[in-house]
Design goal:
The complex is a heterodimer of chains A (386) and B (324). Chain A has 386 residues and is α/β, with parallel strands linked by helices. Chain A contains 13 helices and 13 strands. In chain A, 37% of the residues lie in helices and 22% in strands. In chain A, the strands form two sheets. Chain A has an eight-stranded mixed β-sheet, with helices on both faces. In chain A, strand 8, helix 9 and strand 9 form a beta-alpha-beta unit. Chain B is 75% helix and 0% strand. Chain B is an all-alpha fold and 324 residues long. The N and C termini of chain B lie close together (5 Å). At the A-B interface, helix 3 and helix 5 of A face helix 9 and helix 10 of B.
């Protein structure tokens, strides 16, 4: 009885806290006339186009605060592909939605951190979380565009493919005529490898297969020559033969328009094929990051090692696929120590202490594990390079 | 499309025959008949006279026999003569249907104009104060019995209250003999304010909540996120992308509401003294006026079928996935 009472009191407390957060958020988002000084910023590194620093995205739910993304920091260099890997629910999609400011508000909010974006069209750098919605709408679909994972539901069923493509072109290119927009849309459809583009232009989404729809989504994302393409599991819903085609397509197009890609996936094979840099996420935090070869040839965090082992190989004689034992900790109640501790086969005494920082293993390679603290000296001096 | 409509009309015809059998059986199964009710308490009436009257009204025949003769003349366009009004049923329907139809149509338009925007406004800010106010308003409307609410409206706005609106009838007595002018039209409008607002307020809740639910679903759909990701302004995301998808189920519902507006008119028209089909229908069912009841109910059945057919056609118009 007492327990139940306590629980009710706790839930009420959560509700009150959430309502406060929602109100704060609504107040912030309704504010008018935001001074540019509040969102203008400087990029830290000259060759990066997007810098995410200490990003925290929280969901204020009825059972408590879910820290979906908790202190994520990485850079996206111009013209490179960054792969973000991790299992379902590790916060990779939420991270990408934060960049686009497409979170389910006000439950989901960017609690703190910076997302700096080099807006070359205006010749300035902006901090996305502070940006007024109007300014954000100029970036969305124009300079940063997104490819979603569910091609079957991403397109609006009641508008024709052409109307949906034209829409973003007309929106971001002031003064373009409808005819020119249609021409550009058909060009884009041809670019993503759709035969009979003019017929498809007049068609509706339900007339297309999943692979075709994903091509349309990609065409839509690329139609305004974005600087960054965020591909949130672009191939997950497609069958394997189409997957390879879509990835080839993305890579070709990236080179054509010299864009950067943030590729979000749980498929390590896809990352190996596409990415220049890799970020491994676990329970909302980065556990390891580095160049593709750092991660694939020299994984340091036990979680990354586990991920690599649980990948099916084409040549091995494995009887049963490896799986990491245990499960992800409860997201509303994360411990102070390493989130992976209870599943880790290398667990040590020190792992019971506070969450490990990201140890630098080389100029590009970092891992958040106490194992790397000791081995730091061992890897110094370029031994680590390929 | 044309073939589809033709097929649907043919099927509707068969359905109507079935409906008429059921209706006739139910109407004839009423515990008393017109003659018994009219002559009750009349001591001079002998049983023989009663029997001959029943024969004259065709009430002596059994249900099957009676139905066959009814449907035979109905198929020839003759719905019989109303017992009460002593006029052909078709004539009564033709005379009073425009009034009922005008009232019902205006009510429907207002209902859609109130329910759809409010439903969308509520969905746009789910769980906000605005949402709670709109939803409780809708629930209040659903829960208020129409006969009770009508009396309140009459008391508040009518002669014994603010005295700003007429409480019954279609026209002020003086205006009846004036030729058709703007003042006459205004007089009609003034008389219709209370019945229509009574009707709209008590029936708007269902459509409002339906719109809200569907809008919420659309707003959570992936294509709305895509629209936002394109950089579209929020207004366009809601009024174009989400709304077009909300429209599909709402159109179907509005099509289905058409007949209920007419059957609901029976009570509203009686309460506000409007000379429409509904008021006559209520009186006819008190006094077992079989030809009129059959005529009115068949009219409702035809409207129901027409309503669903119109809804299905509109469905194909708003949803490109539907093709006939």
């Amino acid at each position: 009885m007492g327990d139940k009472k306590n629980n009710t009191a706790r839930l009420r407390e959560i509700k009150r806290f959430n309502n406060k957060k929602y109100r704060e958020h609504t107040k912030l988002s309704r504010r008018k006339n935001i001074e540019p000084s509040q969102y203008l910023t400087e990029m830290k590194s000259p060759d990066s186009i997007l810098e995410i620093e200490n990003l925290c995205t929280y969901f204020y739910t009825d059972v408590g605060t879910v820290k979906a993304v908790d202190g994520v920091t990485f850079n996206v260099p111009k013209g490179k592909t960054v792969g973000v890997v991790g299992e379902s629910g590790c916060g990779k999609s939420v991270m990408s939605l934060s960049v686009m400011r497409l979170l389910q508000e006000p439950q989901g909010q960017i609690a703190s951190g910076e997302i700096r974006f080099r807006q070359s069209s205006e010749n300035r750098a902006v901090n996305i979380p502070n940006l007024p919605l109007k300014e954000m709408q100029k970036i969305r679909g124009n300079e940063i565009s997104m490819i979603f994972q569910e091609p079957m539901t991403t397109l609006n069923p009641v508008f024709s493919i052409g109307a949906q493509l034209d829409e973003s072109i007309l929106l971001h290119n002031k003064g373009i005529s409808k005819k020119d927009a249609a021409k550009r849309s058909i060009e884009m459809l041809e670019l993503v490898g759709i035969a009979r583009a003019e017929g498809i232009y007049k068609g509706y989404p339900h007339e297309l297969s999943g692979g075709m729809r994903q091509r349309v989504v990609i065409a839509m994302a690329l139609s305004c020559n974005p600087e960054i393409i965020i591909a949130d599991e672009p191939t997950t819903a497609l069958d394997v033969t189409i997957q390879a085609q879509i990835l080839d397509l993305l890579r070709d197009l990236k080179n054509k328009i010299n864009a950067s890609i943030i590729l979000i996936t749980h498929d390590l094979g896809v990352v190996a094929e596409m990415a220049d840099f890799v970020v491994v996420m676990y329970a909302g935090r980065i556990v390891e990051q580095g160049t593709a070869s750092d991660i694939f040839h020299n994984p340091q965090h036990p979680y990354t090692v586990g991920l690599m082992k649980s990948r099916p190989t084409s040549h091995g004689q494995q009887e049963k696929l490896y799986s990491i034992p245990g499960s992800v900790p409860n997201p509303t109640d994360l411990p102070d120590f390493c989130y992976f501790k209870n599943r880790c086969e290398f667990c040590m005494d020190i792992c019971g202490q506070k969450y490990p920082p990201l140890y630098k293993l080389s100029n590009t390679h970092k891992a958040a594990c106490y194992l790397c603290k000791d081995e730091k000296s061992k890897f110094e001096g370029g031994v680590f390079s390929e | 499309m044309r073939q589809y409509i033709f097929r649907r009309v043919m099927i509707s015809f068969i359905v109507l025959i079935g409906v008429s059998i059921l209706l006739y059986a139910l109407v004839r199964l009423m515990p008393s008949d017109f003659i018994d009710m009219t002559t009750a308490g009349n001591v001079k009436m002998s049983d023989e006279v009663r029997e001959s009257l029943k024969e004259a009204y065709g009430l002596d025949k059994g249900i099957v026999e009676g139905y066959i003769s009814w449907i035979w003349s109905a198929l020839h366009g003759d719905l019989g003569i109303s017992f009460i009004y002593r006029k052909p049923v078709t004539e009564i329907i033709a005379k009073y249907a425009p009034i009922t139809f005008a009232v019902a149509f205006i009510a429907l338009v207002f209902e859609v104009l109130v329910a759809v925007p409010l439903g969308i406004a509520a969905a746009k800010r789910q769980y906000s104060k605005m949402d709670y106010i709109i939803v409780s308003f809708a629930f209040m409307g659903i829960s208020l019995p129409i006969f009770f609410f009508a009396q309140i409206l009459k008391r508040v706005f009518g002669f014994y209250g603010l005295d700003i609106l007429p409480v019954s009838g279609m026209l002020t007595a003086r205006a009846t003999y004036v030729s058709f002018t703007f003042t006459k039209l205004l007089d009609y409008a003034r008389h219709l304010v209370l019945p229509i607002s009574c009707f709209v307020i008590t029936s708007v809740g269902g459509l409002l909540r339906y719109t809200r639910t569907n809008m919420l679903e659309a707003l959570n759909a992936d294509y709305v996120r895509t629209a936002r990701a394109k950089g579209l302004p929020e207004k366009k995301v809601i009024n174009k992308h989400a709304f077009r998808n909300t429209l599909i189920p709402v159109v179907t519902m509005v099509g289905g509401m058409l007949p209920s507006l007419f059957s609901g008119a029976a009570i509203t028209e009686s309460l506000f003294g409007l000379d429409g089909l509904g008021k006559i229908a209520l009186e006819a069912s008190y006094r077992a006026d079989i030809p009129y009841l059959m005529g009115f109910n068949m009219f409702l059945a035809i409207l129901t079928l027409a309503g669903t057919l119109i809804a299905d056609i509109l469905y194909a118009v708003v949803d490109p996935r539907v093709k006939y």
